[in-house]
Write a structure and sequence with these properties.
Blueprint (H helix, E strand, L loop, with lengths): L4 E3 L7 E9 L8 H18 L10 H10 L10 H10 L9 H13 L3 E5 L7 E5 L5 E3 L5 E3 L4 E5 L2 E4 L16 E9 L4 H19 L2 E8 L1
Parallel strand pairs: 1-4
Antiparallel strand pairs: 2-9, 2-10, 3-9, 4-7, 5-6, 7-8
Helix pairs in contact: 1-4, 3-4, 4-5
Length: 221
């Protein structure tokens, strides 16, 4: 049985959430094959869409629809997937962190959906996707406290640890990570079979570059 995760009533019917758990991972600083795959896919995106806007890329509208359903303006608070896409279309290199994070970014570029990536051993279940409360915040990765009030957040027994725009320092993935929780955010109208396929493809990509095996893979209703 995988991690206990549910969508709170105040967000039910607005979001379709994919969940993937991996264990036995080996996270390295870099992998030449992964770097080559990322650069090749980025070049393909620029070839196809380099003269257009990120919102015109097929699939990007899904992330924007999700944000609008969650009460967020996607032109002011960018989905993490679109932030990656915008860098690529500008010809800028993606940040290189480690093989797990970098492979996750490749998956997000391919699906054009925002992902969350967390060290499973730093999470204290149960987990709920809910709206942030008044004055609530968490410590972002390489940034100051992130305001979460009124925004969708993943929260465990210790409080918020991630959202569709950014992840938190408390549960961030490092070279020491051996188990991971991956979330995929999609609008409620998103085809469930397609979301299940994205989870399957994501598992294949992450285990290709970081080893390990899938422990759980499901769409949370």
């Amino acid at each position: 049985m995988g991690i206990a995760l549910e969508v709170a009533p105040d967000l039910a019917g607005r979001v379709r959430l994919g969940l993937l758990e991996l264990e036995g991972l080996t996270v390295a600083e870099a992998d030449p094959a992964l770097t080559a795959d990322i650069e090749a896919y980025a070049a393909e995106l620029r070839r196809r869409h380099g003269d257009g806007k990120s919102g015109d890329v097929p699939g990007a509208a899904d992330a924007r629809a999700l944000y609008k359903a969650l009460g967020l303006d996607p032109t002011k608070t960018r989905p993490s997937s679109e932030a990656l896409l915008r860098r690529v279309l500008k010809g800028e290199a993606l940040y290189r962190i480690n093989t797990l994070v970098d492979a996750m970014n490749l998956c997000s570029l391919r699906s054009q959906l925002p992902f969350g990536l967390y060290d499973r051993d730093r999470i204290e279940p149960p987990v709920v996707l809910r709206k942030g409360g008044p004055g609530e915040s968490d410590e972002g990765i390489r940034k100051a406290a992130v305001n979460l009030e009124g925004r969708p957040v993943l929260s465990d027994a210790r409080g918020p640890f991630g959202n569709p725009t950014s992840d938190s320092a408390r549960t961030m993935v490092t070279r020491e990570t051996r188990a991971a929780l991956v979330t995929v955010y999609a609008p409620s109208s998103f085809n469930e079979a397609r979301l299940a396929e994205i989870l399957k493809e994501t598992e294949a990509t992450l285990t290709r570059y970081c080893g390990g095996t899938g422990r759980d893979r499901r769409v949370v209703r």
